[in-house]
Write a structure and sequence with these properties.
Layout: E1 2-5, H1 7-13, H2 22-36, E2 41-45, H3 49-57, H4 66-77, E3 83-85, H5 114-122, E4 129-131, H6 141-146, E5 151-153, H7 156-164
Parallel strand pairs: 1-2, 1-4, 2-3, 4-5
Length: about 170
Amino acid sequence: MPVIIDTNVAVVANGKSSQATRNCIDTCINRIEQIIQGEEILVLDDKWKILNEYLRNLRSRGEPGAGDRFLLWLLRNKDTLCQTVSITPINGSDNEFEEFPDDSALDDFDPDDRKFIAVACVHKENPPILQAVDSRWLDFEDQLHKNGVTVEFICEDDIQRLHRSI
């Protein structure tokens, strides 16, 4: 099954998120391991917007955490074990894409996360986006779903707790 991984899943797997409980960290590690073992297929964009965000937030050298090991695996296998879809930046933008839903209810959606939505929309199977602790996504869950985008909140207890505290 294809999936898209929000960067915070790998960051949490590294134990680098003070917001995440031990259960959430273990869940993120498990999902990353499923990809590395071939049980799930990672989907990326052809402009490397997602990969570049991973590179900014994870390490490919030194003593790696689980998220860092995921990045190393990805760098070695992106051309053979991952799926890539084409996204179209609007006017050279880093955060605006033709594939992002034309829906005014999503106007306030985090520009930095729009690449994940664009990839989900353009992929023929509309894969879920795995989300760990970014509770702002909850505010848009229904509208994203109406536009064919599924967000899988893999740390449900943590994200609900974080959302209530906003």
